[in-house]
């Protein structure tokens, strides 16, 4: 299956605030504009990741304009899962953000606890009304019951991210897991996002590997919530 266009929104991008990424939000927006990407989710790592931003970073995101170089900027976070239903940013700050992604990362206080425990922690967060996207669920370092996770995504309308970097740059060994997740998403109709997970401006809007895998399994274009700015805003419950 070929999709009608490239997704308009990239909902997973890191700035220098993450501590191990290399571009400012201004540089990222400029590159996004050059590539025709219309919306960017500024999703720096949560405070729990070593070298990550202080919670004040998320409290001060109001200083970031709604558009930069003509690109809509969503104020977000890639929060770290710390336990069952538990993230590394307080609820009052999560409430203020446009986009809350949650994901597993090592060295934040919740390393792999085995498939059953990992899945239990994640499923609880998928019930959280602010958590709209699960970052790179195919990470082989955190085994999950993919059937349960994808069914929960379909039930709670929490999108599962198919992370482009998982196929080429990061989290070696993800590809097979991502294909399994994609196959289950096609079967259960769960919402998905494609994200670049760019850690430098040049990576913004790079989705080719993820799109090829989604298309190969026949995930419907309507399931890809960041296909357009309108569909992404609607999914996130944000005004146009
Ligand atoms: Zn990172
Ligand atoms: Zn991540």
Please tell me about this protein's structure:
With 240 residues, this protein is of the alpha/beta class. A hairpin with a 2-residue loop joins strand 3 and strand 4. Strands 1, 2, 3, 4, 5, 6, 7, 8 and 9 form a nine-stranded mixed beta sheet that branches. The two termini are 29 Å apart. The protein has one domain (10-236): Alpha-Beta Barrel (TIM Barrel), CATH 3.20.20.140. Helix 5 packs across helix 6 (175-188). It is globular and about 40 Å long. The chain is built from eight helices and nine strands. The protein has helices spanning 25-35, 55-59, 91-96, 115-125, 146-156, 175-188, 208-217, 229-236; strands at 9-13, 39-45, 67-68, 71-83, 86-87, 99-103, 131-134, 159-163, 192-195.
Topology readout:
Elements: E1 9-13, H1 25-35, E2 39-45, H2 55-59, E3 67-68, E4 71-83, E5 86-87, H3 91-96, E6 99-103, H4 115-125, E7 131-134, H5 146-156, E8 159-163, H6 175-188, E9 192-195, H7 208-217, H8 229-236
Parallel strand pairs: 1-2, 2-4, 4-6, 6-7, 7-8, 8-9
Antiparallel strand pairs: 3-4, 4-5
Helix pairs in contact: 5-6
One zinc ion binds at residues 14, 18, 20, 45, 199.
């Amino acid at each position: 299956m070929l999709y009608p266009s490239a997704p308009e929104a990239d909902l997973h991008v890191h700035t220098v605030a993450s501590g191990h990424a290399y571009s400012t939000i201004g540089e990222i927006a400029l590159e996004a504009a050059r590539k025709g990407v219309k919306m960017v989710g500024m999703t720096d790592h949560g405070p729990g990741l070593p070298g990550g931003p202080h919670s004040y970073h998320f409290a001060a995101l109001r200083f970031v304009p709604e558009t930069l170089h003509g690109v809509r900027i969503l104020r977000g976070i890639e929060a770290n899962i710390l336990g069952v239903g538990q993230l590394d940013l307080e609820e009052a700050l999560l409430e203020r953000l446009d986009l809350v992604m949650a994901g597993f990362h090592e060295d934040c206080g919740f390393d792999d606890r085995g498939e059953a425990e990992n899945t239990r922690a994640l499923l609880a967060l998928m019930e959280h009304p602010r958590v709209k996207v699960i970052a790179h669920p195919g990470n082989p370092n955190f085994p999950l019951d993919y059937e349960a996770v994808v069914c929960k995504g379909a039930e709670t309308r929490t999108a599962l991210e198919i992370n482009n970097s998982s196929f080429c740059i990061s989290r070696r060994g993800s590809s097979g897991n991502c294909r399994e997740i994609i196959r289950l998403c096609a079967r259960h109709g769960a919402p998905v996002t494609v994200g670049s997970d760019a850690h430098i401006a040049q990576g913004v809007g790079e989705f080719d590997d993820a799109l090829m895998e989604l298309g190969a399994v026949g995930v419907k274009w309507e399931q890809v919530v960041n296909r357009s700015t309108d569909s992404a805003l609607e999914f996130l419950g944000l005004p146009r």
